[in-house]
Amino acid sequence: MSTDPRIEDLLRELAPQVLGVLTRRFGDFAAAEDAMQEAMVAAATQWPVDGLPANPRGWLIQVGYRRMIELVRGEQARRRREDLVARRDPDDRQHAPAADEELTAERDDTLVLLFLCCHPALAPASAVALTLRAVGGLSTAEIARALLVPEATMAQRISRAKQRIRSSGLPFRIPEPAERAERLAAVRQVLYLIFTEGHTSTAGPDLRRVDLAGEAIRLTRVLHAQLPADSESAGLLALMLLTEARSAARTGPSGELISLTDQDRSRWDAAAIAEGVTLVTGALPRGPLGPYQVQAAIAALHDEAPSTDATDWPQILALYEVLERLAASPVVALNRAVAAAMVYGPAVGLAALDALADDPRLAGRHRLPAARAHLHEMAGDRNRAIADYRAAAARTNSLPEQRYLTMRAARLAVETGDGSVAKTIES
Amino acid sequence: MKYMLLMQFSVAGADFPSIDTWSPAEIQAHIAFMGEVNGKLTASGEWVDGQGLGGPQQVRIVRAGDDGTPLVTEGPFAETKEFLAGFWIVDCDSPQRAVELAAYISTAPGPGGRPLNMPIEVHPVMSAPPEEV
């Protein structure tokens, strides 16, 4: 991609619009997506040299259009199109361009593309990859680097996802009202998945890696701009902003995790917090209420508190109770137990955690012993805390988390004179 | 989720006869199967890495001496019954899928074309994003 970030931002913003025009014109999403990528590469090469065209969007559509003509003339593409036409619903006029339709019709298909790329027929990993490429305008190489897999693997994943769309005959249009809520939930879920993937990197910022959390926020901004009245999409954007606001304070110099309690709150991003708070405050009274809004409200309470002690724990506890009614899960129950401990003391929290001890969805995972360890530590029961921290460290699949839990155990062991520290720190 | 699949061969031929006693056709079939595994993982978009490793005669154990110089011990190891013959790193959607892939690799053909049913260890790679702590 180009080295000029302004050109890069413009290209990535225009990518889904160009793709929408080409898909409508030719009725072949998979080929249009390839043509769009080629037009982006051409622009990234030529614009920095020749300067920005008067109509960048039109320029990209023209180049993509010419490439599509070449593709469609190809034997393979013609066969593909025949298949498509044969399978197409006869009364579906989606792909037939109107006679007076300008090539550069001012139409933004970004939302249609989001629905298509996040379709429940696709596996989550495929939906993530396709969304980043078709809607985010990222190259296969960039996506592969971001997700730490070889480029050939990512290319295969994207091409399989496109084949799946082609063979399922998924239509290029906004879903019917009857299924819209469910499909929108799938879109939000994929965007949130991209966001959480962005927190995997532990080795500090790799300049060659795309910032996935930032990319997820950018795409969710697009979703929110297209559906400003949708309260859950606003809630999702708020949740991302309020979580990302803490990212600078979340890890220490060697990538070690710093707990919310110990974070330097002056390093939180005040602008992101303000924007997130405004969004969630605006969405909540509008309704309908949804889990992302409630999680955003909880994140807002954390972000607005000057310290752990000054946090509005009763309000957070009340919100977790609301969240349990909306979207019950063992993880929500676990967080509610921790909030209850902050309000009523560790014994109450531990009793609530005991009720989750037999939940098969938490069995063998680290969350329950980690939460128990924190509450035992709070209660001053060091030996139990050490045992639970170690049990949690042995079960997590996250390296920074494992180191954090091991360190907590080690610190308590030194205080209690039990020097046998678990040997799970690799570096 | 990324998983490392470790393929163990037995040194003493406890599980199945040592590969250097197989016929060329049997070895060929085994190699062809491994190529097939790699092809399938690539096609499904789950391939991250995979390599065959040198036999136990080539393995060296290295420790640093007090002055930091390498102290090298040669294999094969008197104590071990099996050695690491190869590994894959896969990126798949679920732990169940990782187990499914391991079971498929375990059916690699051996003497007489029969499945070896060799043990495949499935190790989760520490690649999960950390949660808020």
Can you characterise this structure?
The complex is a heterodimer of chains A (427) and B (133). Chain A has 427 residues and is mostly helical. Chain A is built from 20 helices and no strands. Chain B is built from two helices and six strands, in the order E-H-E-E-E-E-H-E. The mean pLDDT of chain B is 89. The chains are: A mainly alpha (427), B alpha+beta (133). Chains A and B meet through helix 6, helix 8 and helix 20 of A and strand 2 of B. Chain B: Belongs to the YciI family.
Strand content of chain A: under 5%
Output the radius of gyration of chain A: 25 Å
Structural category of chain B is alpha+beta
Task: Label the overall shape of chain A.
Answer: elongated
Q: For the report, how would you describe the main beta sheet of chain B? A: 4 strands, antiparallel
Rounded to the nearest angstrom, the radius of gyration of chain B is 17 Å
Tally of extended strands of chain A? Answer: 0
The main sheet of chain B orders its strands as 2-5-1-6
